[in-house]
Design goal:
215 residues; mainly alpha; 7 helices; 73% helix; elongated
């Protein structure tokens, strides 16, 4: 995820205004007594404060370097860091590609990918499957999106460019379905464990005669 930090950038107009005020004063008024200098300083301060209110500057957002994830598990750290880099690249492509239908699919792929990667934290047994996802599926998806971005930027409605872009758009639908299946498959073991717990609890309630009671 992109981290942005706000920085207030001051306007240079107040400084230029003070310089002009100094120049005008020196051209038309004396500057050889102490109170002359004090008056000039007071005028400069008033000019600076006045122009600072008129030209307060602007707030800009700059990208803040992300710190590498460190959980103490080397393999897990690698997955989380690689996943973050991949999702960041998809975020760049989301901003670069203007086609609304493609942007919506990129956003959906990003959200699903983030859930798949973060599942490594909750269930380390899924790390091998997530590693495969990171090694092939996600890089290939990003490669297709980069190709689409480059072709779209050409602004040419040619057979090769238009045909390839259309194929990539169709493939994005397939990718969304496949990624959803990948995410669902990561919960297969958990679903089995929960089903077992439900059956055990149901059996205990029946034996204790609590199945159909108010309890």
């Amino acid at each position: 995820m992109l981290i942005l930090r706000e920085i207030k950038k001051k306007s240079v107009v107040p400084i230029y205004a003070v310089a002009i005020a100094w120049l005008i004063y020196c051209l038309f008024f004396p500057l050889y007594l102490l109170w002359h200098f004090l008056l000039l300083i007071a005028i400069a301060v008033a000019v600076y404060l006045g122009f600072s209110k008129l030209f307060p500057g602007k707030v800009i957002k700059v990208e803040e370097p992300e710190k590498p994830v460190s959980t103490g598990n080397t393999e897990l750290d690698a997955i989380l860091n690689e996943g973050r880099t991949a999702i960041k690249e998809m975020g760049r492509l989301y901003s670069s590609i203007p086609e609304a239908s493609v942007k919506s699919r990129i956003l959906e792929i990003m959200n699903i990918s983030d859930k798949i990667i973060k599942n490594a934290i909750d269930d380390p047994k899924d790390i091998p499957a997530i590693r495969k996802f990171l090694n092939y599926y996600l890089p290939t998806t990003i490669k297709l999106l980069n190709a689409y971005d480059r072709m779209y930027a050409q602004g040419v409605d040619g057979v090769n460019i238009s045909g390839t872009m259309s194929r990539i758009e169709d493939m994005l639908d397939t990718i969304v379905v496949a990624y959803n299946k990948q995410l669902d498959s990561l919960f297969a073991d958990e679903a089995l464990d929960i089903e077992t717990d439900i059956q055990v609890l149901d059996g205990m309630l029946r034996r204790e005669g609590l199945k159909d009671s108010e309890f």
